[in-house]
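Case study 2.
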Amino acid sequence: MSKQTPRHEKIGDLLASIGNPVRVQILLAIGTGEACVCHLESLLELRQAYISQQLMTLRKKKIITSRREGKYIYYRLVNPEVLEVIRAAAEIVGISKDSLDMQDHSNCECPKCSLEETPPR
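Prediction:
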């Protein structure tokens, strides 16, 4: 058996890191913008502690980064092209790319999401 080259290991590591179904949901929820933990919690209907564990894994793998604004921490993708990997995988297994949209902010009460929901005057 031949030894894998570092580039194959990097690809495998990325796919393993994003392969967890909850991490896929998190990455889709973040999308090309950013999302706070409270947003992810309301959208995914999962406990904050579990979401934070998954976010920590994604941060350690340098797939996401974060910024603090007051008491809120917002997460965004380091490289938005990771969404294309997820969309390609969805297409391979017969899932429509259009059905992957997870940008609903209706149940999140953070200042950023609240501002997005305020209708323009």
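Helices lie at 6-18, 21-30, 37-44, 48-60, 82-92, 111-117.
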